Amino acid sequence: MRLSYQLQQPIRPLALSVLAWLLAPAAHAQLSGSAGLLSNYMYRGVTLSDDRPAARLALNYDDAAGWFAGGQVVTGQLAVESHRSAQWTGYAGYAQRLPSGLAWETGVTAYAFPNKPHWNFQEVFFGLSGDTVSGRLHYSPNYLGFGDHTLYCELNGGWTLAPRLQAFWHGGYYYARDNARTNRAEARIGLATSYKDWQAQLSLDLTRQRGGSTTDIYGSNNRGDSDVRHKVVITVARIF
Amino acid sequence: MKRLLALGFCLCSGAVMAQAGQDLPQIVPRIDAPAETQKAPDNAEILVMFHLPAPHFRADHYGSNNYREDAGRAARQRIAAAVAQEYKLELMEDWAMPALNVDCYRMRLPAGQGAATVLDALSRDSRVEWAQVIQDFVAQAGSDPLYRTQPAAGAWRLDEVRKTATGRKVTVAVVDSGIESNHPDLAGQVTVEENFVDGQKYVPELHGTAVAGVIAARAGNGVGIEGVAPDARLMALRACWQSGSATRCNSFTLAKAMNYALSNGAQVINLSLSGPQDRLLLQLVEAAQARGIRVVGAVDPARADGGFPANTPGVFAVASDGAAPHAGLHPLLAPGRDIPTTLPGGRWGVVSGSSYAAAHVSGMLALLEELKPQLSVARLREGIVPGDASAVLTGIDLCATIRRLTGKCTCACPTSSNSRFVRSP
Fold first, then answer.
1. Fold held by A5-239
2. Of all helices (H) and strands (E), which one includes residue A32?
3. Beta pairing, strands B347-351 & B25-29
4. Which of A42, B18, B42, B173 has the largest count of CB atoms under 10 Å?
5. Is A28's CB within 8 Å of B51's CB?
6. ∠ CA(A105), CA(A106), CA(A107), 5° rounding?
7. By 3-state DSSP, what share of chain B in percent is helix, strand and coil, each rounded to 5?
8. ipTM of model
9. Three-class SS string for A2-18?
10. How far apart are CA B273 and CA B55, in angstroms?
11. How many CB atoms lie within 10 A of CB A162?
């Protein structure tokens, strides 16, 4: 039996997510997740929910040896879509902390858009984490199916302001070797709090596009000049 | 004569004289091992470690590295709850210790139950990394005006050393009872105050305040004493608490403080305490050493091996000058008798014991860290020059040590060196 092309596309991320469940019986395995609502699903500085609220379900699996896997599904909506649709992400990798306190990780990520399967793409990533700052470099040979070789570099950090209040920051730069007009820098600063199994975040997301133009997926302008945009995002999630 | 007068002034102004040899916090096992032969006291507690994954990408991650609030914690809490239920333990609290890749859960045994059986069962449980009892630390406690009364002032020639080094920008973690940060001689010296004792607020206490003063009391402020490294920055990590005349700590409170020191940039960790071997604390000490952090431990004169952590390889074990030798242990000797230092209530007093000898060495290491931050612990230890044996207060020749390790001439520089070496276990 042959699966339809459209059905095949989310298979990889879905498989990575299901892997977590398959491995769950290991006694020491840690399976966790979150279910929540986002006022805007911002991905690397652009909205993947057309500036509308979205729901997210995420799962993560960790084993005692350092292997991890997980996935999420978001009810996103690209600018070219008229309705919400599921956007899948799956990932798997390995992470280890060194005696120096520095931790490293490497893994693969697969993104799937069942309604627009030609945008599906995969990435590999490598990251380093210290006690307060972490950095990660992602590479995709075919970002969003455009055939672009892209790099995305991100730095993340945070600190505790009070027992239940943390501040966090994030900065990222997206670089497309074959399409410099889509290069962009983005940043996020915010506050996070929690109560029992609930988490809430408030953040300000800033994006600066080099050429003021990206793909039609994101629905951005094409004026050709630099453009700094900001979004305020609220997220509420229940962890489990 | 000046020293005697100053001492008299000190005592008349409300100083506290600690009894020699009784200042050192000691670890007394709450549950003796093997505990099965004895009935454990009520409310005995154990620590159960679960694997803490290294930080990694997750789709719902929001940026920070905060382990206490991340989604993965829920999974560990579920496992811990299941373990607690299975072994009839009461879940008390948890504390992630990234330096060891463990999430440490404090659990309470049923009243009267010994720990040995539970620990044995947990050691075979694949959900658990390892478990141990919580052991108690018990302290059986019992130019500025006072500068000339400080043994280190003359023996270590601090006046001259300060021309070269003051411990500037070196962070020393004082894992102890609370430090009085607004003491006139400590004001501005404490950059971080953290409390790791459950159910209590941070309060200034005797032992921590006295140790802090020896390390980093302000110099040249016209009052009190001068610390060995007056420009060092202190992390006041309250892991011990004063209980009457005693100062107590335990494995869990000390581990939380050590974990904090490791994660927040401590360069020297002062542990003026002692007790039996403790797996959790030992791993944290080793993790600190792996990161190049200098760990100083006070030798317990009542223990044949000097007690933990002083008996740990790589730890700078320090005994009070004139202390009886320990078989197999060759600690550094530093001033530890009749030491004027800071006390709570804005006072000064005289204290004695290896706690304060250790504090002197922590101050010395802060000076060396300022001058030569990249030195390996082994090189550092080899470079410490013992003092003249005829002078009881000069367990270490600080000037010669600095000269040997950094090449900087801090005191009167001889034309030739007859440096000797001292080695600690």
1. Porin (2.40.160)
2. strand A30-38
3. unpaired
4. B173
5. yes
6. 130
7. 30, 25, 50
8. 0.83
9. CCCHHHHCCHHHHHHHH
10. 33
11. 8
Q: Give me the total of CB pairs closer than 8 Å, taking one residue from chain A and one from chain B.
A: 145
Q: Could you report the per-residue pLDDT of B125-165, keeping only the tens digit for each?
A: 999 999 999 987 655 333 556 666 777 777 777 887 888 88
Closest by CA to B133, choosing from B200, B38, B246, is B38
Tell me the CA distances in angstroms from B400 to B156, B157, B360, B387, B415, one per residue in order.
10, 11, 16, 9, 12
Hey, which residues of B are catalytic here? 176, 207, 355
Tokens of B21: 């040899």
- Give the three-class secondary structure for B240: strand
- CA atoms of B122 and B101, how far apart (whole Å): 18
**Helical (H) or strand (E) element with A185:** strand A184-195
pLDDT for residue B200 is more than 90? no
Domain B2-27+138-406 has CATH 3.40.50.300: no
Assess contact for B18 and B340: CB atoms under 8 A. Answer: no
Please state the domain extents for chain B: 2-27+138-406, 43-133
List, in sequence order, every residue forming a beta bridge with B137; answer none if it has no partner: B27, B249
Residues shown for chain A: 240
Tokens coding B413: 């520089």
**Strand pairing class (A85-97; A67-76):** antiparallel
CATH class of the B43-133 domain in this structure:
alpha beta
- Report which residue type is found at B366: A
Q: What DSSP string runs through B182-222?
A: TSTTTTTTEEEEEE-STT------HHHHHHHHHHH--SSSS
Please judge whether B71 and A60 are an interchain contact, meaning their C-beta atoms are less than 8 angstroms apart. Answer: yes
Q: How crowded is the C-beta side of B263, counted as CA atoms within 13 Å?
A: 22
Paired sense of beta strands B316-320 and B294-298, if any: parallel
Query: B263: which chain A residues are within 8 Å (Cβ-Cβ)?
Result: 101, 131
Q: Using N-to-C axis directions, what is the helix angle for B251-263 and B279-290, rounded to 10°? A: 10
Whether B328 and B425 have beta carbons less than 8 Å apart is answered as yes
Tokens 């490791």 sit on residue: B262
**Crossing angle for the helix pair B354-371 and B206-216, nearest 10 degrees?**
40
Chain B contact residues (CB < 8 Å to A): 51, 53-66, 69, 71-76, 79, 98-99, 101, 125-127, 129, 262-264, 287, 290-291
Q: What is the CA radius of gyration of chain B?
A: 22
Residue A228: alpha-carbon gap to chain centroid: 21
Instruction: State the pTM of this model.
Output: 0.80
Domain ranges of chain A: 5-239
β-partners of residue A187 are A171, A206
CB B45 within 8 A of CB B31: no
